[in-house]
Structures are given as structure tokens and as C-alpha cells.
From TrEMBL:
Pfam assignment, any one: Lipocalin
A GO molecular-function descriptor: retinal binding
Xref: InterPro entries: Calycin, Fatty_acid-bd, ILBP, Lipocln_cytosolic_FA-bd_dom
Name of protein: Cellular retinoic acid-binding protein 1
Family from the record: Belongs to the calycin superfamily. Fatty-acid binding protein (FABP) family.
Keywords, ordered alphabetically: Retinol-binding, Vitamin A
Length: 135
């Protein structure tokens, strides 16, 4: 059975999220709000087609993409940059590289047991988010 990320996932732990936002030059006040938020990921997967919605009471962020198809991403409401993004499968991990102004930028998603993991990387900072299944 291939992996299926679909579902609603709620954030449980969020290690180094503030450092990640800081390296993206997100301002102090926004960072303080952002780290206090509960985040919910709503994922719809149809084969290699994905829709990721990150929902919070402050801001939402939506990303739709197809694996192996490069696309323009505007990180609106996050650091507001434009990057060229490409998501690939590495085994059962979804691996995104975000080419742009910031070096070594990207993320990885994977599932282990009933948890969804997200590793967010920029330069030398790695944030690890762990979500548990809501529905
Ligand atoms: O996630 O790129 O799941 O795009 C934080 C929203 C969203 C809260 C972080 C407000 C999304 C923050 C990171 C205000 C500064 C991301 C991808 C993988 C989907």
C-alpha cells in the first residue's frame, strides 16, 4: 500500500519553529504570535497530487502541487518570498526543495505510526513539527 497523507492533523510539538521563522526574517511580534498558535494540517492526496492547508486562528497557508512538477511558490503570510519549489518522493517521504534567496531551504513530510512529521529547513536551522491524527 502506498503512503496516504490525507486527513486532518493537529500540531503536537514544534521544535525550533521560532528559529526557523527568524532565519526567514519574520519579525519579532509575528514570531511570538506564530509560535503560540495551534496549527492544523488538512491534507488531500490524490496519487501524486497534493493539497496542503495549514490552518490557524492567525493565518492560513495553502499549497497545491504535483510530485515532480516544479512550480512557483509565493510564501504569502510567511516570509512573503518567491521560490521555485519541487517536491519529490524519497521512498515514502515527500521532499520539497525551495530554490530562491535563502540557501538550503525546503521541507520533508513523512508518516510514522499515527503521526505526521514535518521537517522545515532553512540555512542551518531545522524545525521539527509532529502532528497527530484528528480525523
Ligand atoms: O508547510 O511550508 O506542510 O506548505 C504556519 C502558519 C505555516 C502559521 C507554516 C502562521 C507552513 C505563521 C510551512 C505566520 C508567520 C510549510 C508546507 C508543508 C506546506
Amino acid at each position: 500500500m502506498p503512503v496516504d497523507f490525507s486527513g486532518k492533523w493537529v500540531l503536537e510539538t514544534n521544535d525550533k519553529f521560532e528559529e526557523y521563522l527568524k532565519v526567514l526574517n519574520v519579525d519579532f511580534a509575528t514570531r511570538k504570535i506564530a509560535i503560540s498558535l495551534s496549527q492544523t494540517k488538512v491534507v488531500c492526496q490524490d496519487g501524486d497530487k497534493f493539497d496542503f492547508k495549514t490552518l490557524s486562528t492567525f493565518r492560513n497557508y495553502e499549497l497545491a502541487f504535483t510530485v515532480d512538477v516544479e512550480f512557483d511558490e509565493h510564501t504569502k503570510g510567511l516570509d512573503n518570498r518567491h521560490v521555485k519549489s519541487l517536491v519529490k518522493w524519497e521512498g515514502d517521504k515527500l521532499v520539497c526543495t525551495q530554490k530562491g534567496e535563502k540557501a538550503n531551504r525546503g521541507w520533508k513530510h513523512w508518516i510514522e505510526g499515527n503521526k505526521l512529521y514535518l521537517e522545515l529547513t532553512c540555512e542551518d536551522v531545522v524545525c521539527l513539527q509532529v502532528f497527530s491524527r484528528k480525523e
